[in-house]
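tokens incoming
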């Protein structure tokens, strides 16, 4: 008898038949979710809720495209003459526009009791119109100005030193007008004193005024000194 052929069992198949050794299964990676679409010009970006679900912070929406503005077209011009703007009220104190060798003289009528107040209002108006404080000298014929009385209490040397500094309004007795230096504007307040004092001090005040002399008081006191045309 021929020898029996060996039987091949299914379990004894080659290495390819044997199952591969078991390996530990890897943890599946999470599939990334959809990313928020990038905002396009002229379109709003994703809503905050959608961005939070996607795991990212909401991005601000880009500004909307600017629409070029049309240039404003000039309106029709009014026919006929254009009305002029109303003129400003004239000031009480007017100064010469052109410097002259002889100063101009202005008179502000006031009683002797109100001459000093009129002089104070004149100084305020001059300062409001742009005059520098050092341009103004105030002379009084009667009671001294409160500022002068206060400064003289510290001595005449300190008082006249402020006059020499020339950086502020200076108040002096009209009897001492010849001691004061010339200034662009002199305000003469006839607030008392004798007629003889006024007659002597007023020409000196006129000589101390470079461009303008303003006299506050009774006009009848000045007619004989400055002329009736003042």
């Amino acid at each position: 008898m021929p020898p029996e052929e060996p039987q091949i069992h299914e379990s004894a198949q080659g290495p390819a038949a044997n199952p591969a050794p078991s390996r530990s299964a890897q943890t599946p990676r999470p599939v990334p979710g959809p990313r928020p679409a990038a905002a396009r010009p002229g379109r709003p970006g994703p809503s905050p809720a959608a961005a939070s679900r996607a795991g990212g912070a909401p991005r601000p929406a880009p500004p909307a495209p600017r629409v070029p503005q049309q240039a404003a077209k000039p309106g029709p011009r009014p026919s006929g003459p254009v009305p002029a703007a109303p003129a400003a009220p004239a000031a009480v104190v007017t100064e010469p526009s052109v410097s002259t060798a002889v100063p101009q003289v202005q008179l502000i009528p006031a009683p002797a009791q109100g001459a000093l107040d009129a002089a104070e209002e004149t100084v305020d108006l001059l300062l409001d119109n742009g005059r520098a404080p050092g341009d103004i000298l105030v002379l009084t014929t009667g009671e001294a100005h409160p500022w002068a009385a206060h400064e003289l209490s510290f001595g005449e040397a300190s008082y006249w030193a402020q006059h020499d500094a020339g950086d502020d309004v200076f108040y002096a007795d009209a009897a001492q007008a010849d001691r004061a230096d010339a200034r662009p504007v002199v305000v003469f307040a006839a607030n008392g004193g004798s007629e003889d004092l006024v007659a002597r001090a007023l020409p000196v005040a006129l000589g101390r005024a470079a461009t303008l002399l303003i006299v506050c008081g009774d006009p009848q006191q000045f007619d004989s000194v400055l002329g009736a045309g003042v």
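note: The beta strands are 104-109, 136-140, 170-173, 183-189, 209-217.
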